[in-house]
């Protein structure tokens, strides 16, 4: 391995330049503080997207509300708005303080994207948005819809017939596939999901039950995406949702920031220079956390701080940022195996544009052991009676990682842990997760 050359440098050279790499390559949990982060005013004009893009996406979500209600009757009492709760988790805070033997000042909140309606994960934001936007575009192009009309008509039989001539396709470790499969088949599209080896059996089954075609790969996520993209390109009537480079997914996620601002206001939680906002989000390819981070920076400005969490075995965003290689790096180049129970985060190469965009926006990245994911999900269940999947538990260590590294200045910080998935996990599997976590906690 010593002789391997990655973008002109040997691995030894890379380690010499970035000594943290040696810890990362040994799967040690690390906290990496980004010292390139800059004031938003200084970099805004260089960003490829702006606040207006977030607002535009939010308006589109509003147009989608009536079709969402028509497709999913359970959305009637939510007015067709796909959104999750923001709750304060005092009991979990006490348990974490005890666990880490550190006192955390400020307030600790949980953003429950783990329980987003219909898709049960953060992918309801990006995946639903892109599929609905594509459905909107097709209908408008064929003069079957204008944006002033009630979008409920997109759910009628005629439209279903229309959409059934078209294909949707995506490469996924699981949850993105679920979200695309659920909404895509509901609209009438022919949906093909290219699943990586880490994808859980129950997710594949659920998709087949919905009428989606599931293609399984023995390789990792990057390969599933590459294959899916290739096959979709060969068919002009198939639209490929490209998790490695989709602007639409990214903007779908970004709207979470607008919603969070509203929720904080409703709960009379101040966010300003004296009350900074720190948000901790699990990161896979980067689209979801990147979109949310971008949205937060646009909506709150410099008082918002974003920190990503990755498994010690899949730190692709971290390694991409650290080396500046971004998507040109696959963690296997450095000998990492990309094996983790956090299937939503099992990604070896970061998104083609998110890493670059995060260079000056992101405060830092930390990595988490798989065992800690289980410990934390069990602790959350015990203290707050909330169930999340392993990927979704990655954020909880965040505030304590920052404390340990003297990276928190304010006492009045508003900490938001982003829980990203779990509501659709079958009971028996959730019980296994909990049992595993409890036994680790009792050690
Ligand atoms: C997809 C996913 C993430 C991360 O999103 P990316 O866009 O892949 O970075 C985090 N948690 C869960 C549960 C997910 O499914």
Note the main attributes of this structure.
443 residues, alpha/beta, 13 strands, globular, binds pyridoxal-5'-phosphate
What structural class do the secondary elements suggest? Answer: alpha/beta
Oligomer: single chain
Radius of gyration: 21 Å
- The amount of beta strand, in percent, is 5-15%
Task: Count the DSSP helices.
Answer: 17
* Whole-number mean pLDDT: 95
Largest sheet: 7 strands, mixed
Measured as a percent range, the helix fraction is 40-55%
Number of strands: 13
Please give a structural write-up.
This protein is α/β, with parallel strands linked by helices and 443 residues long. It is 44% helix and 14% strand. Helix 5 packs across helix 15 and helix 8 (175-187) packs parallel to helix 9 (201-210). The longest helix is centred in the N-terminal third of the chain and has 21 residues, at 51-71. The two termini are 37 Å apart. Bound molecules: pyridoxal-5'-phosphate (PLP). The site of pyridoxal-5'-phosphate (PLP) has 19 residues, from helix 12.
């Amino acid at each position: 391995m010593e002789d391997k050359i990655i973008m002109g440098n040997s691995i030894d050279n890379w380690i010499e330049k970035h000594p943290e790499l040696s810890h990362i390559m040994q799967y040690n949990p690390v906290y990496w503080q980004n010292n390139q982060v800059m004031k938003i005013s200084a970099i805004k004009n260089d960003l490829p997207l702006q606040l207006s893009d977030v607002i535009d996406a939010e308006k589109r979500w509003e147009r989608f509300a009536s079709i969402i209600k028509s497709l999913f009757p359970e959305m009637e009492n939510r007015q067709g708005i796909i959104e999750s709760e923001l709750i304060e988790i005092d009991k979990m805070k006490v348990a974490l303080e005890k666990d880490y033997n550190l006192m955390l000042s400020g307030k600790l909140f949980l953003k429950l994207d783990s329980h987003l309606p219909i898709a049960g994960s953060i992918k309801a934001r990006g995946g639903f948005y892109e599929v609905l936007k594509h459905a909107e575009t097709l209908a408008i192009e064929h003069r079957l819809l204008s944006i002033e009309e009630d979008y409920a008509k997109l759910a009628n039989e005629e439209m279903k017939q229309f959409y059934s001539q078209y294909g949707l396709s995506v490469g996924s470790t699981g949850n993105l596939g679920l979200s695309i499969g659920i909404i895509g088949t509901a609209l009438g599209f022919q949906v093909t999901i290219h699943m990586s080896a880490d994808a859980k059996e129950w997710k594949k089954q659920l998709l087949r039950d919905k009428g989606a075609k599931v293609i399984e790969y023995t390789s990792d996520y990057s390969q599933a995406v590459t294959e899916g993209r290739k096959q979709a390109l060969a068919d002009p009537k198939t639209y490929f949702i490209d998790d490695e480079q989709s602007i639409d997914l990214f903007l779908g996620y970004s709207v979470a920031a607008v919603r969070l601002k509203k929720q904080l206001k409703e709960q009379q939680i101040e966010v300003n220079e004296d009350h900074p906002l720190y948000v901790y989000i699990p990161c896979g390819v980067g689209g979801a956390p990147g979109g949310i981070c971008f949205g937060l920076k646009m909506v709150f400005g410099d008082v918002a701080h974003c920190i990503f969490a990755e498994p010690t075995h899949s730190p692709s965003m971290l390694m991409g940022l650290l080396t500046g290689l971004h998507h040109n790096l696959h963690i296997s180049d450095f000998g990492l195996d990309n094996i983790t129970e956090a299937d939503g985060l099992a990604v070896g190469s970061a998104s083609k544009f998110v890493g670059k965009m995060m260079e000056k926006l992101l405060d830092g990245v930390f990595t988490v052991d798989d065992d800690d994911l289980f410990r934390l999900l069990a602790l959350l269940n015990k203290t707050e009676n909330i169930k999340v999947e392993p990927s979704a538990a990655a954020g909880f260590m965040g505030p304590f990682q920052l404390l340990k590294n003297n990276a928190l200045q304010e006492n009045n910080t508003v900490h938001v842990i982003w829980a990203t998935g779990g509501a659709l996990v079958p009971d028996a599997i959730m019980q296994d997760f909990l049992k595993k976590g409890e036994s680790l906690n009792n050690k």
